[in-house]
Amino acid sequence: MTARLRISRQALVANYRKFRAAADGAVGAVVKADGYGLGALAVARTFVDAGCRHLFVARAAEGVALRRKLNKPSILVFEGALPETVETLAEHGLIPVLNSPAQLALWAPHCQDAVAVHVDTGMNRLGFHWNVGVDVFNGHRISLLITHLACADEPNHPLNALQLARIKALRARFPGVPFSIGNSAGTLSEAAFQGDLARPGIGLYGGNPWADRPNPMQPVASLEGQVVLTRDLPPGETIGYGASYQAEAPMRVAVVGIGYGDGLPRLLSNCGALFAKDRRCPVVGRISMDLTTIDMTGVDLAPGDWVEAFGANLPVEEVAAKANTFAYEILTGITKRVARVYF
């Protein structure tokens, strides 16, 4: 093992409790995409132990894997009912989030089982039109109405107000049916954007819910690579594929056992850094599948030492910006061969 992802259960719980404190209603947890790359079962168990009673996943297979290990929480599946999954959903007691009349028809044989309905109020992605009539759902046991805020991370965006107005109009047609509105940013905003059941995602895992504010969440995960060897280079020597970096002066480099095969973005080549012993060490040369070379001149590193690719010292948002992406993609892009270590 030369690459690992260290995950703090304490930070996961602290972030969940922050959302609980902010919300007027209940708070679930989005654990799709293998718990945002941190391991769905481990993080789901952590949230359930902290009092979470509602888990959200993207696909039926994710829900089945959790249901086999977790009996208590309700598990809602964002993709809804598909021809190949409808019986599986019913068999395992999963709640599909229906997105269209076609999915509603597929679920008709199980209409007495709990179902959630996704209503589109401005995202223009999945969901029934926000002006849908109640009669469309006659005979179905609707346990939750869901909508998704497109610009919650920008609280002053005008689309937020429009979506809220549509949500209110919709809610009036479904008296007594609870709503789920708030994602991470929505949950931390005013109560109107939370609904009866908030469903934070990225904030639970330490990502910044906001586009234009400091991150209020505790860092949860640290991606680390292990130094494989160190070497001294004289001026003029090049490093890595394509010889894209040339030493201008004598330098000492460390070869770290982590690369794009582990999820470290290749776009960090010659512009990113790894953190080692209180210093940012620039990435020199191209990041390869298994290895990354850093300038460790003036830093006392030896084979076996661990260095940070992102974490408490290198915020994941900063690393993502360097790679021209965002924290979601960095976290979910960490591959299976990286060991998840929980503490």
SSE layout and pairings?
Blueprint: E1 3-7, H1 9-22, E2 26-27, E3 29-30, H2 32-36, H3 40-49, E4 54-57, H4 60-67, E5 74-77, H5 86-91, E6 95-98, H6 101-107, E7 114-120, E8 128-129, E9 141-146, H7 158-172, E10 179-180, H8 184-188, E11 197-198, E12 221-233, E13 238-239, E14 245-246, E15 251-256, E16 273-276, E17 279-282, E18 292-295, E19 306-310, H9 316-322, H10 327-332, E20 339-342
Parallel strand pairs: 1-20, 2-11, 3-4, 4-5, 5-6, 6-7, 7-8, 7-9, 9-10
Antiparallel strand pairs: 1-12, 12-15, 12-19, 13-14, 15-18, 16-17
Fold and architecture overview:
By secondary structure, the chain is of the alpha/beta class. The chain has helices spanning 9-22, 32-36, 40-49, 60-67, 86-91, 101-107, 158-172, 184-188, 316-322, 327-332; strands at residues 3-7, 26-27, 29-30, 54-57, 74-77, 95-98, 114-120, 128-129, 141-146, 179-180, 197-198, 221-233, 238-239, 245-246, 251-256, 273-276, 279-282, 292-295, 306-310, 339-342. The strands form 5 sheets. Strands 3, 4, 5, 6, 7, 8, 9 and 10 form an 8-stranded parallel sheet that branches. α7 links the parallel β9 and β10. The two termini are 17 Å apart. The model has no long low-confidence stretch (mean pLDDT 97).
